[in-house]
Amino acid sequence: MRATILGMALAMLAGCATQPPSPEAIGATFPSRQYVLLGEVHDNATAQAARLQALTRAVEAGWRPAVAMEQFDRERQADIDRARKERPGDADYLIAQAGSAAGWQWPLYRPVVALALQYDLPLLAANLSRADAAKIVRGGLGAVFPQDQQAALGLDKPLPMEVVAAQTATLDAGHCGNFPKAMLPGMLNAQAARDAVMARTLAPYAGRGAVLIAGNGHVRRDLGVPRWIRADAAKVLSVGYLEDGSPAEGFDEVVRVAPMERKDPCKEAVVKPR
């Protein structure tokens, strides 16, 4: 009898251990960190809703971070600030003025923008533009950043070999095993530059707390923005919002959601240089 009761108790504990963290529980940890990096699968509305819920709970409880978004290119910060002055609280107007048409599904991001406006939080354009990324791919980091800026961003040293290997594998998998090797050095530089720029965007707001809204690859501790943040690792929280079945390496917390139904991009994979 005792063995049966013990077995039932262990089974219950095991079940509790596998329960995903609730948005409330995740959000409650945000104020204790200087940097909170919240990932996404760009087209998965369920994951984005879970992320929004966690962020909203933390803000409603009194946290007042800056909110940086991959979806706004860094050149559009002036447009964000102008739109806020012209029509305070109007998320649609801000997106129309500062957002790009670079494939973002803006209805999914509008609630984050609206939350920042509702609570008068700094809203930061965090991304390196596609145009600048393309310049780096073709001409190296110097095509966009002078040497002093490379040093300030931490881009003046070679990437560690383990990062090169992991990013190479990620790029190759993302291109169905057909990634052109000649483009690899440039793509690695461009990816590093994007992550370094995002980290630099967050840095001035560490005292009040800074949130990054970005793809899961950018918030990974081993490969993404956390590598470029110059702060105690304990002050950084990385949350991956992942579809079932996808790898979960590199995150402090993982929230799983059902995968979206999509066409298989590898059935007719064609890689074209950007």
UniProtKB/TrEMBL annotation:
<feature type="domain" description="Haem-binding uptake Tiki superfamily ChaN">
    <location>
        <begin position="32"/>
        <end position="229"/>
    </location>
</feature>
<dbReference type="InterPro" id="IPR007314">
    <property type="entry name" value="Cofac_haem-bd_dom"/>
</dbReference>
<protein>
    <recommendedName>
        <fullName>Haem-binding uptake Tiki superfamily ChaN domain-containing protein</fullName>
    </recommendedName>
</protein>
<dbReference type="Pfam" id="PF04187">
    <property type="entry name" value="Cofac_haem_bdg"/>
</dbReference>
